[in-house]
Amino acid sequence: MDTFHLPVMAKEIVNFLSPLNGKTIVDCTVGGGGHISKLISNIQFPISNVQCPMSNFHIIAIDQDQEALEFAKKRLAKYDNIEYIHDNFGNLANIIKESVDAFLFDLGISSYQIDQASRGFSIRYDAPLDMRMDKSKQTSAREIIHNSSEDELAQIFKEYGEERFSRRVARAIVLERDKKEINTTFELKDIIEKAIPTWKKRESVTRIFQALRIAVNSELDVLKKALESTIPLLKPEGKIIVMSYHSLEDRIVKWFFRDKAKNGILNILTKKPVLATEEETAINPRAKSAKLRCAEKNN
Questions:
Q1: Which residues are annotated binding-site positions for S-adenosyl-L-methionine?
Q2: 228, part of any domain
Q3: What is the pTM of this model?
Q4: What is the pLDDT of residues 140-181, one digit of tens each?
Q5: For 58-64, what is the mean pLDDT?
Q6: Which of 3-17, 82-96, 131-145, 181-195 comes out lowest in average pLDDT?
Q7: 3 domain-assigned
Q8: Which DSSP state fits 164?
Q9: Which residues on neighbouring strands pair with residue 242, listed in sequence order?
Q10: Residues marked as binding?
Q11: 169 vs 137: CA distance, rounded Å
């Protein structure tokens, strides 16, 4: 593993979190450690190739993907004030034992996870139907495809993929699995493409794969739970920063912020979501769909 994806809107996140000195920051989705690296490099002291002594900040780096966590540990090995935790950020209430200054969520899936064919996230590679971000979990995309009813599959595709042809695809999957097992991404892709009109093929395949990934990892339920957990753990003026990549995630964050602001708990710092600049999207196409929202806890 040589590279992870470029951190999206790193400059904007650094601006929200600076100065870092004296703060405790929780990176709920550390990935390859890109955002942490940018944060630390912004501190006004030299960063050398030797291990940096303990400074007056503390970073708690969480990721449910063990491979991502190991990569971050190696990338950030010279800093001894980063605590690494292999867990799902839905467990924040149990993970965090102190009041903190900020929570950072970079949602979705990394370029590394997509490009690693064996993980089964991408429509580009023929691979086992997996899609587990935490490979220690039992339920994979294959289990959902084989063990869900037609109604359950249609609901997953409609709710998590906003797929117009959800019922048609669900029926096609059930008919096909009665004939033989569906074990790989290309086998599923072929079923989807045969079930829908030609002009919608690629878009529908992408939506179905997204829906399955969300279902496998319970992403939306976990996000709701995690956001609620941040409130009692935040210090006054502490920040919640969330970067989402599709409308389902962004809608949850938007309404969570609005509800807490209405009740005087949060102050929304981004009245509209922050978008990546044209310069950044030209370098990193993944940034094009990103929406960043930030809110601050009131005293």
A1: 33-35, 63, 89, 106, 113
A2: yes
A3: 0.87
A4: 999 999 999 999 999 999 999 999 999 999 999 999 999 999
A5: 93
A6: 3-17
A7: no
A8: T
A9: 105, 293
A10: 33-35, 63, 89, 106, 113
A11: 26
